[in-house]
Design brief:
Rossmann fold, Quinone Oxidoreductase, Chain A, domain 1, alpha/beta, 10 helices, 7-stranded mixed sheet, 2 domains
Length: 335
C-alpha cells in the first residue's frame, strides 16, 4: 500500500510502499477514503512537536471504511463508515478520561504524531476511538470535520458559548471558515478578522455581518463599535493580531486560542481584570465532542469547503501550506 512518510523532524514527505497491516484484537483496519491536511501536520513535518515519534505517517482527519476487525471487536462491522480524529487513544482511567475529557489525558496518543495517521491507504486504529460517520456526510466532507470541525465545536463548548453571542473569528483559512459555519449554525452573530483584504467577500458569503481588515483597522476599536465580542475564536496562529483584538472583548468575554502561535500572546492585565475577560486555549476534543459535533453537522448541513488532491500531490501541498498559500481545507482522496 502507498503511504506518505516523514522520516525525521524537518525532513521531506516521501511516498513509500508499505505492507498492509493486520488489526490486533481490539483494533480495526480502516481503508482510508479521505484524509484532511491540517496545520498540525505541518508542525509534525517541521519538528515542532517535541513528543512526535519518527518515522511517522501524518494525517489525523481520517474518513474511511472498516476493512477488517480484531477478534474482540464486537460493536463494529466491516463496511462501517468511520472517522478517526487526532485522539488515537488515552489511558481511560484518569480523571480526565472518566470526565469525557480524554484529550487532556497525560497518556494521550496522537494520530499522525505519535501513531501512524491517515495519509496512507490503510490505517490501524483502536476500535473504541473511531466514530461512525452519518450516511448523509461524504468521506471528503467528513475528513476536515475530524479536526477542524471538532476543534471549533469543542472550543465553543468549553468557552461557554450561548445562542445570540457575538463571535469574532480571527483568520478565514481551513479552520476559520469552519468556525464561521459552526458559530452561525449555533445561533451566533459573526465577525471575521483577517490580514487579507480579499477575504471580505468570502466572509460575507459565509454569513459574517462584519469584516475587519487587521492591517488597516484597529481590531479592538472595530469590535467595540460592534458592542464587543462575547467570544473571539483565534484560528490563525498570529499572536500580534490576537493581542490587538483582545481589548475588543465584551465584559466577561473569552478569547479562545485554537491556532497555536509560537510567539507569546501579550495582553494587558488591566484589560483582563477590569473586563473580567478570559484568555484560554482548547485542543481538538473528546470522543463525546466528536460524536456530538458529527450529529450537529448532519442536522445543520455543515459541510467544509475543500480542495481535493491525490496522495502523490501531498508533498507539494505541504510546501504550499508552509508558504501560507492555502485557504480551503486540502483533502487527500484515495483512489
Amino acid at each position: 500500500m502507498r503511504a506518505a512518510v516523514i522520516k525525521t523532524a524537518g525532513g521531506p514527505v516521501e511516498i513509500q510502499e508499505h505492507e498492509r497491516p493486520t488489526p490486533g484484537s481490539d483494533e480495526v483496519l480502516i481503508r482510508v477514503r479521505a484524509c484532511g491536511l491540517c496545520h498540525g501536520d505541518l508542525m509534525v513535518k517541521e519538528g515542532q512537536f517535541p513528543f512526535a515519534r519518527y518515522p511517522v505517517v501524518p494525517g489525523h482527519e481520517i474518513a474511511g471504511v472498516i476493512e477488517a476487525i480484531g477478534e474482540r471487536v464486537q460493536f463494529l462491522a466491516c463496511g462501517t463508515r468511520v472517522g478517526l480524529s487526532a485522539l488515537f487513544s488515552s489511558c481511560g482511567v484518569c480523571s480526565q478520561c472518566l470526565g469525557a475529557d480524554e484529550f487532556l489525558c497525560e497518556k494521550l496518543e496522537f494520530t499522525g504524531i505519535t501513531k501512524d495517521g491517515g495519509f496512507q491507504e490503510y490505517v490501524l486504529a483502536p476500535a473504541a476511538y473511531v466514530a461512525p460517520i452519518p450516511e448523509s456526510i461524504g468521506f471528503v466532507e467528513a475528513a476536515p470535520l475530524m479536526c477542524a470541525g471538532l476543534t471549533v465545536f469543542s472550543g465553543m463548548r468549553h468557552a461557554g458559548f450561548e445562542h445570540g453571542n457575538k463571535v469574532a473569528v480571527i483568520g478565514l483559512g481551513g479552520l476559520g471558515h469552519m468556525a464561521v459555519l459552526f458559530a452561525k449554525s449555533m445561533g451566533g452573530r459573526v465577525a471575521v478578522i483577517s490580514t487579507s483584504a480579499n477575504k471580505k467577500a468570502e466572509a460575507e458569503a459565509l454569513g459574517a455581518e462584519q469584516f475587519i481588515h487587521a492591517k488597516t483597522t484597529n481590531t479592538a476599536n472595530a469590535l467595540k463599535r460592534w458592542d464587543g465580542a462575547d467570544l473571539i475564536l483565534a484560528t490563525a496562529p498570529d499572536a500580534e493580531v490576537m493581542a490587538e483584538a483582545f481589548p475588543g472583548l465584551a465584559p466577561n468575554g473569552t478569547m479562545m486560542v485554537l491556532g497555536a502561535p509560537f510567539a507569546p500572546i501579550s495582553v494587558s492585565a488591566f484589560d483582563l481584570i477590569m473586563g473580567r475577560r478570559r484568555l484560554m486555549g482548547s485542543p481538538a476534543g473528546s470522543r463525546k465532542d466528536l460524536m456530538d459535533m458529527l450529529a450537529f453537522a448532519e442536522l445543520h448541513g455543515i459541510r467544509p469547503q475543500v480542495n481535493c488532491i491525490p496522495l502523490e500531490h501531498l508533498p507539494n501541498a505541504f510546501e504550499e501550506m508552509g508558504r501560507g498559500h492555502m485557504s480551503r481545507r486540502t483533502v487527500v482522496v484515495m483512489e
